Amino acid sequence: MNTQGLEASPKSSRLHIGLFGRRNAGKSSLLNALAGQPAAIVSPIPGSTTDPVEKTMEMLPLGPVVLIDTAGLDDEGPLGQQRADRSLHALRDVDLALLITDGPQWGDAENRLLRLLTDEGIPFAIVRNKSDLGAAAWPERPEGVGAAVPVASVSTVTGEGLSALRDLLARLAPGAQETPPPLLHDLLPENGLVLFIVPLDSGAPKGRLILPQVQSIRDCLDGRKLSLVATEKDMGQALASLARHPALVVCDSQVVHLAARELPSSIPLTTFSLLMARARGNMTQLAQGAAALSHLRPGDFVLLREGCSHHPQKDDIGRVKLPRLLEKIAGGPVKTRMLAGKNAEADEDPAPVLAIHCGACTLTRRQMLRRQRDAQRRGIPMTNYGMAISFAQGVLGRVLSPFPDALRAFNEALEKSRT
Q: What is the pTM of this model?
């Protein structure tokens, strides 16, 4: 196992591969075979897998991946139906999928999944498992399945077909259009230096930095760029120590007002949250959504969303600080609801006037884009924490300036909202 690769690749940056099929089709056995270790429970008793099981690993030639084993699509009874529904819900989390079949078995469950995968635009292949039990007598592909759908035969007992399946997964992997851009190194000139302003508050675990900060520093190293890290209290001293101005300053959203006030306007400034908006989702759409803050009124309902389920702190950004800033923007109290976690569903009635999402550092790009599409489908503007905080501080235009398309979208949406 390449431990260096594991340390360098958080789960949100890994390709998520879902394994779906009936009970006892061999999904867990296939996951273990691909992982090279007993990551999932294997049993002849139907329904051994009850909830999605994730295994993080390195898989050549794909690189860092997350394999997701799921419960059988044909599970029975009230509890079994809940398990099957949870499996289908896992489709929201995957970048590509394997539909596992046990020999020639094919029916309504497989056809339903086939339609869902096609509708969601998720690349997939059909895997005829247990080929050691008589694959020669099985149909080459299920009836009604077009020739464009890849079909592979494997045996987790003999290992037959596993190498070819890994190669097939590499070919199925989403193309460059779904690959996130670098966090920031492409924004810097050759030998450019970025100054990171990192406050050491209660949100920063003792002895560690939060994930967006770590990822940003690593991105500079990957792009062969220079970086300097300082707290907001040492920002002036850090600037004075440099022979020339940094090409970019990136700060925490909570100190963006200080950075904007202290830094010369000639120095480009943005926030970690905006970098995550660019890497994880559609930044232009989030910038458009920020314009909705301009007509927020007392009593309006705003939905707050987070990708993870962390333990709230006394000065929690989403639960304390952001509602306070929204009250300031609206000129009076607004109604808010927090929806946290990867599996949380947004089905508010009545619909909120605005949704504000966290930086999505624990979500994959596909997961965040799906949340944005869901909001757009319901006609709900969506922005993110960093943009909302910068708007409240009156500096959103400045921190969007390193991203001309997003700045243009915000200004156009803001002008439209005023007419």
A: 0.80
